[in-house]
Write a structure and sequence with these properties.
The complex is a heterodimer of chains A (114) and B (111). By secondary structure, chain A is mainly beta. Helices cover 0% and strands 56% of the residues of chain A. Classes of the chains: A mainly beta (114), B mainly beta (111).
């Protein structure tokens, strides 16, 4: 099983709303990632969790708040977003962050901020 | 800072043709390189992973090569099919463990 499951698949939210994106994997991976992808652009790294600890934050605005409650789950809490935050949000996992490790991606959450 | 470039940006070929997609990177200190496929509005599907010590990997009609010293990788697709139409992304894993992506090659295979 190489599946990374993201929910919801689509999300429309207002600029004053609070919502959360969820990501789950059961491959025993200890590294999990959030990426943001705008239309016709490559994915851009937002956060990396390694062994449930935040190891990389790519200077992401505080309106995005990641959480890793356990080794199988990764959440992204959203608050006071802007329309330009509309994008495809991708979650990925890998065995670890180092060598010999293949990354697997979920199908993404299509977020629209109105 | 690592930069990944993919050429061409778009490619249209008739069905049955063999083709090569190119990926180059500026910093050869990578852990590995991974090729992905992305269908419109969907997530990424891993195609091939090449470790930094390897020269190539094969899976079915796909063959990926890696020349770390020159900062280049190629993805060879044999006997292309319309179902191969998608955007192909290469990504390198650096020492911090993050994946850095190229902008992708959009492939269209015409029946």
């Amino acid at each position: 099983d190489t599946e990374v499951t993201q929910t919801p698949k689509h999300l429309v939210m207002g600029m004053t709303n609070k919502k959360s994106l969820k990501c789950e994997q059961h491959m025993g991976h200890r590294a999990m990632y959030w990426y943001k992808q705008k239309a016709k652009k490559p994915p851009e790294l937002m956060f990396v969790y390694s062994y449930e600890k935040l190891s990389i934050n790519e200077s992401v605005p505080s309106r995005f708040s990641p959480e890793c409650p356990n080794s199988s789950l990764l959440n992204l809490h959203l608050h006071a977003l802007q329309p330009e935050d509309s994008a495809l949000y991708l979650c990925a996992s890998s065995q670890e962050t180092g060598m010999n490790t293949e990354a697997f991606f979920g199908q993404g959450t299509r977020l629209t901020v109105v | 800072k690592q930069e990944v470039t993919q050429i061409p940006a778009a490619l249209s070929v008739p069905e049955g043709e063999n083709l090569v997609l190119n990926c180059s990177f500026t910093d050869s200190a990578i852990y590995n390189l991974q090729w992905f496929r992305q269908d419109p509005g969907k997530g990424l599907t891993s195609l091939l992973l090449i470790q930094s010590s390897q020269r190539e990997q094969t899976s079915g009609r796909l063959n990926a090569s890696l020349d770390k010293s020159s900062g280049r990788s190629t993805l060879y697709i044999a006997a292309s099919q319309p179902g191969d139409s998608a955007t192909y992304l290469c990504a390198v894993r650096g020492s911090q463990g993050n994946l850095i992506f190229g902008k992708g090659t959009k492939l269209s295979v015409k029946p």
